[in-house]
Amino acid sequence: MANVLAVLEVRNAVLRKGAAELLAAARRIADASGGTVDALICSVGPVSGSDGLGAAGADRVLTAQHAVFANYCPDGMAATVATLTNAYRAVVVAATATGKDLAPRIAARIGAPCAMDVTVVDSRGESIRVVRPVYAGKALQTVDLAGTAVVAVRPGAYAAVPAGKAGTPAVVTVPAFTKRLDVTGIRTSDKAALDVAEARVVISGGRGLGDPKHFALLEELAAAFGGEAAVGASRAVVDAGWAEHGAQVGQTGKTVSPELYIAVGISGAIQHLAGMRTAKVIVAINRDKDAPIFKIADYGIVGDLFEVVPALTAAVRVAKAH
Amino acid sequence: MAGSAEYTGVDFYDVDGLLSEEERAVRDTVRSWVDEQLMPVIGECYIEGRFPRQLIPGMAELGLFGANLPEEYGCAGLNNVAYGLIMQELERGDSGIRSFASVQGALVMYPIFTFGSDEQKKHWLPRLAAGTDIGCFGLTEPDFGSNPGGMITTARETADGWLLNGVKMWITNGSQATVAIIWAKTGDINDVNSIRGFIVPASTPGYTGKDQKGKLSLRASDTSEIHLQDVHLPKNAILPKSGGIKSPLMCLTQARYGIAWGAVGAAMACYDEARRYAISRIMFGKPIGQTQIQQQRLADMLTEVTKAQLLVLQLGRLKDQGKATPARVSLAKRNNVSAACDIAREARRLLGANGILVEYHSMRHLANLESVYTYEGTHDMHSLILGQEITGLGAF
Amino acid sequence: MKIAVCLRRVPDTTAKIVIAGSGTVIDETGVKFVPNPYDEYAIEAALSLKEKAGGGETVVVALGGDAVQETMRTALAMGIDRGVHLHGTPSPDGLENARVLAEHLRGAGYDVMLFGKFAVDDCGQQTGAMVAELLELPCATAVTKLDIAAGRATVEREVEGGIEQAACALPAVFTCDKGLNNPRLPSLKGIMAAKKKPLEVTPVAPGAGSVTVAALALPPERAAGRIVGEGAAAVPALMQLLTTEAKVI
Ligand SMILES: Cc1cc2nc3c(=O)[nH]c(=O)nc-3n(C[C@H](O)[C@H](O)[C@H](O)COP(=O)(O)OP(=O)(O)OC[C@H]3O[C@@H](n4cnc5c(N)ncnc54)[C@H](O)[C@@H]3O)c2cc1C
């Protein structure tokens, strides 16, 4: 029986988005062998957004409360999870910046293998089988993890599935631990309100924008999507200083799997394609009809982005207003 | 656009396998530098007719100047193959940048190293290696190009030094140089054996350098006229070990060696651009690279690139053994520059209308290579050098 | 200050990936190998920390076969003082490799141990943090800012929607992200000096671990898309497709 522990992420007493998707992935492993799924929340006190976890697939919702969890505390979380893992075949986290930081720490503490950025999870006999993009998305690796495994599931890989589980609350004790790293806080960078790795819609700009100030066009289009879109950038423009590195999509930037990816003025260098080819739907807007981006885009518009993007922004606004 | 896909070189015959680890490392460093520093600005510089001066400190820091000269003078002490690879990679970017490095290293540092006194070497070489001094090489005159032995610039010995008079033309880096190696006759105007080299600081009264305008080639390189009017120099300005026309010709052999490598770089850039374009450009419903004519073009280009690569590599190995005779260097300069010109022209043509844009590189290389074809001994002069070597009969 | 940089040899990011006959690894023929790009940030961080401290020692540590020495010499050419080559075949289980590295780093007196955020080949993203756990040392991953003063480090790292700030005492482990610095190119003199720098070889044998690679495959080609139209006039048609066919709006 493969019981699974899903370690959820909390920031400022609010559950981070993606918990339901992570529980869906956890259920996939558990259900294959009649196992259960527990969600773990490490926090100072009550966490908003945690009510629906039963419905999203948690048989139990474990809470570990400690003053140290006011900020992300990898040492405290890893220590807490390590006390629980005997009961589980898999520990799953979302492959966010925080999840990717936490997963290997847990794995090292419990002597388990760790698989990052997983897009498919399955249980397979005594192993957990996962598929993960390697070579920055240029290949897919299928790996079997024996024993207890720590798996970081890429955001967007699984959609939330209503499961109607009990979500029975339970309390977990935080063991004694040494706080080696002291996270002092998060400075919100005004630009990256929504991260490209998290957004449902990503609109990326490349050299075709011609000037950094034209990113404003993309910001407007993102705004038309009403808070579910983020603005990304190609490596060329990040290297040129037009956009922050945090917005870079591609091999040495972020790998994203949004539902909708709109590439504006991006030719489609192989390094860029590696970072967004797993998007559900790709739209390309480019003046050059021979640009490689059109080879992988589902829908393309050949034309001047300075005309097409504002028209699209207006159309999205109208669609969203309905 | 042309620059969107990263350049990874051309190596059809595993020539890489013939290079040592350090040689490859040197090549990779310079290639990265060209990608990061030169490629983003070269188009603009070319259009504006401006040498990217801001890159000089970075080039010096990498050790690109006089890289085959010994470490005791602040140089990298590389072998000649590694030196050649530097020239190849610089010229992959632009012939103008390679010209700058060639002049600084082979035409300024080399003569000081070879014909200079210990004092001159200790004073000048580290400063030139560090790029704090920029040099130029003044041999050609308005009326004496292929035949520099006919020069009429003179150096007359005075009580306390030398007095130089004359005009030099087509001098790379001439206007921005802080120091010039000037070749002048110290004796009778018909006596080629009286030609000696002088180290002339550009600040010396009577020395003026001004850019030649209207160039349609090597636009990202300064080419200048130098006027020497009653230029007084101290006694120790002369390169003591220089003597006769042979001395500047020895410098040219050094520079030509680097040019033979540089031409390979330009040819590789053009071939690479043409290949990518042929695959991605769709016409009549299929890539143009799927037509026999363009395939033949590419096959010819790749063949010539590969031959040129093997030629310079063996020349480099010979040079490291002291066997790179002037005639052997002539053969490589002559063949590789000519092949590069052909490749650049064919690449430009394959690119159609896009081929005339500065966003693509082939036309810039093509225009540049026309200068390279002419300077450092025209193609014809190298035919004559080889002809003399073959027959023993001078036909100049 | 004594600083270790753990380095990995990876295929150049521009390399075309071809799957080998075994179906579990890539075909390495003709593939150019380079230092992992994120490790270059670690190398640069080590060099600039040493320069700032005005002294100390930087050591590059790499696990792998013979070929990894060439990659190590790139680090030496950039200015790292010496190398330790842990000669052995890396395990597909990152924890086993972390154990080997931790064993070497333990008790070697390093104040700072640097890694890349991840290696661009297997994208494991785990070695640094695992090594820290095994050594029971503080660790910050994917740092974009690293300041060291008076035996303490303050770091910044990108998280979704912001920049996380953290601090810890030394010795500590950091994994480096793009944005931390601009790695220098090895100078030509550095390349010549690299072959004279000490490079010590220690045989190691990472365990088999609990990971088996079952398959490696190229991602499915995306079905060829279509050009909806030209210019702003095509926007209504695009919207129609996005709402009714793709159902993403
Ligand atoms: C961009 C650029 C940069 C340069 N930089 C420098 C520099 O830094 N320092 C320097 O000293 N010089 C420099 N030069 C000058 C260069 O070396 C000369 O241009 C070259 O030697 C040719 O001389 P010329 O232009 O006077 O041509 P000419 O000698 O007049 O030749 C004209 C034509 O006649 C042919 N020809 C000449 N003699 C014969 C013959 N006997 N038989 C058959 N054909 C013949 C030539 O091949 C050529 O086709 C530079 C030139 C250029 C274009």
How would you describe what is shown here?
- Chain A is built from 9 helices and 18 strands.
- Chain A has 322 residues and is α/β, with parallel strands linked by helices.
- Chain A has 2 domains: 4-171, 3-Layer(aba) Sandwich (Rossmann fold); 201-321, Rossmann fold.
- Chain A starts with a strand and ends with a helix.
- The model of chain A has no long low-confidence stretch (mean pLDDT 93).
- Chain B is an alpha+beta fold.
- Chain B folds into 3 domains: 4-129, Butyryl-Coa Dehydrogenase, subunit A, domain 1 (Orthogonal Bundle); 135-237, Beta Barrel (Butyryl-CoA Dehydrogenase, subunit A, domain 2); 246-391, Butyryl-CoA Dehydrogenase, subunit A, domain 3 (Up-down Bundle), CATH 1.20.140.
- Helix content of chain B is 50%, strand content 14%.
- Chain B has 10 helices and 9 strands.
- A 4-stranded antiparallel sheet of chain B has the order 2-3-7-6, with helices on one face. In chain B, strands 1-4-5 form a 3-stranded mixed sheet, with helices on one face. Chain B has a two-stranded antiparallel sheet with strand order 8-9.
- In chain B, β2 (154-157) and β3 form a beta hairpin.
- The termini of chain B are far apart.
- The model of chain B has no long low-confidence stretch (mean pLDDT 96).
- Chain C has a single domain, classed as 3-Layer(aba) Sandwich (Rossmann fold).
- The chains are: A alpha/beta (322), B alpha+beta (396), C alpha/beta (249).
- Chains in contact: A-B, A-C, B-C.
- At the A-C interface, α4, β7, β9, β10 and β13 of A face α3, α4, β7, β8 and β9 of C.
- The complex binds flavin-adenine dinucleotide.
- Residues 103, 137-140, 145-146, 170-172, 218, 223, 371, 374-376, 378, 380-381, 396 of chain B line the site of flavin-adenine dinucleotide (FAD).
Topology:
The complex is a heterotrimer of chains A (322), B (396) and C (249).
Chain A (H helix, E strand, L loop, with lengths): L3 E4 L2 E2 L2 E2 L3 H13 L5 E7 L9 H4 L3 E6 L8 H11 L5 E5 L2 H14 L3 E5 L1 E5 L2 E8 L4 E8 L2 E5 L14 E5 L8 E7 L13 E5 L9 H10 L4 E5 L1 H5 L20 E5 L5 H7 L4 E6 L6 H4 L2 E4 L2 H17 L1
Parallel strand pairs in A: 1-4, 1-6, 4-5, 5-12, 6-11, 7-11, 14-15, 14-16, 16-17, 17-18
Antiparallel strand pairs in A: 2-3, 8-9, 9-10
Helix pairs in contact in A: 3-4, 5-9
Chain B lengths: L20 H28 L7 H7 L17 H14 L1 H21 L2 H12 L5 E4 L15 E4 L3 E12 L6 E7 L9 E7 L5 E5 L11 E12 L11 H35 L1 E2 L2 E2 L4 H29 L5 H25 L11 H13 L4 H13 L5
Parallel strand pairs in B: 1-4
Antiparallel strand pairs in B: 2-3, 3-7, 4-5, 6-7, 8-9
Helix pairs in contact in B: 1-3, 3-4, 3-6, 4-5, 4-6, 6-7, 6-8, 6-9, 7-8, 8-9, 8-10
Chain C lengths: L1 E6 L1 E3 L21 E3 L1 H17 L3 E8 L3 H11 L3 E6 L6 H12 L6 E5 L10 H9 L3 E11 L2 E8 L2 E8 L2 E5 L11 H7 L4 E5 L7 E7 L8 E5 L4 H11 L4
Parallel strand pairs in C: 1-4, 1-6, 4-5, 5-11, 6-10, 7-10
Antiparallel strand pairs in C: 2-3, 7-8, 8-9
Helix pairs in contact in C: 2-5, 3-4
The complex binds flavin-adenine dinucleotide.
